[in-house]
Amino acid sequence: MIETDKSIQELNAKAQEYSGEINKVLDEIKQVIVGQTGVLDRLMISLIADGHVLLEGVPGLAKTLMVKTLSDALDTEFCRIQFTPDLLPADIVGTKIYEPKTTSFTTQKGPIFHNFILADEINRAPPKVQSALLEAMQERQVTIGGNTYILNAPFLVLATQNPLETEGTYRLPEAQIDRFIFKILIDYPSKAEEKIIIQRMTGGAHPNVKRMISESRITEIQQFNREVYADETIEDYVTDIVDATRHPADYDLDLGDLIEYGVSPRASIYLILAGKAHAIMNGRGYVIPEDVKAIAADVLRHRILLSYEAEAREVTTDQIIETILKKIRSP
Questions:
Q1: Which terminal residue of the chain, N or C, has fewer Cβ atoms less than 10 Å from its own Cβ?
Q2: Over 70: is that where the pLDDT of 117 sits?
Q3: Where are the domains of the chain?
Q4: Is residue 80 within 8 Å of residue 68, measured between CB atoms?
Q5: What 3-state DSSP class applies to 179?
């Protein structure tokens, strides 16, 4: 609990310091990525809040390039895993290999032992692979041959999926989807941005980004994120938003026949953590209602399960979230 103005001032000073570094990273990334400012901001927020991200968009919108460029701007290890139907858990986490010379088994670690994991087209992998990835995402550890190995921090899974193709894909388990702090929807660039993309990608020059922040600094920012002040009124506001998805009638919301299941307690946790990260991005050491509103849709859209009635009426989760935010009074 923050009891003095001095404490708030100290938090603000630290937040402003980190915000300056984060904005330098974003400026570096924007030398390669054209537009998509909101998506890039969300990626940085997820990094600060230490949460995994699911990116959804049609092919060709630079989802893979965004993640790769973000990793290049940070002094971290990056690995891209192309998910396919024939992928095995050992292809991700690793396996035990028998050494005839020593008559013993050695552990061959898989690509999951990197800081940034790009899980490309994650919904193409079978359930066993998703189960192995789920342990890594939630527990920050993997099990190989009965032995448990802790993953290095920072550890971030950035998964992509194509909403158009369904052939050769598997539905992601709800338990796994709930582990993503954000589900970010990527849209087409504007006409002006499209022209810049053409000029940049078809010309002779290919800009390279500089490594801006070290692993230890990222971990330091993530630890500070939990120290950012969120008043009890903010906690009550988040609790009301989450509860409204479960018991809409209690808030005079006519959504009961549209929502099959409300969001889990992880939504409450991530709304606060992402709200704190949004505050840091804006150079503040405390959370305001606008921080929560700014990231609410990205935190909630993949956690609200719609009813058949909602699908028949073509109601989206984003529309439901917007209705809830308009109804719930902010502090």
A1: N
A2: yes
A3: 36-202, 228-327
A4: yes
A5: coil
Please name the helix (run of DSSP H) or strand (run of DSSP E) that holds residue 241, with its range, or none: helix 232-246
Report the C-alpha gap between 279 and 285 in whole angstroms. 7
Tokens found for residue 19: 């915000």
Amino acid residing at 160: T
Give me the count of residues in the chain: 331
CATH number corresponding to 36-202: 3.40.50.300
User: How is residue 203 annotated by DSSP?
Assistant: S
Residue 44 φ/ψ, nearest 5 degrees: -70, -40
Angle between helices 215-225 and 37-49 (to 10 degrees): 80
Give 246-270 pLDDT, tens digit per residue.
999 999 888 878 888 899 999 999 9
Class of domain 228-327: mainly alpha
The reply to whether 228-327 shares the fold of 36-202 is no
Hey, CA dihedral for 300, 302, 303, 306, is it positive or negative?
positive
Q: What's the pLDDT tens digit per position in 281-292?
A: 999 999 999 999
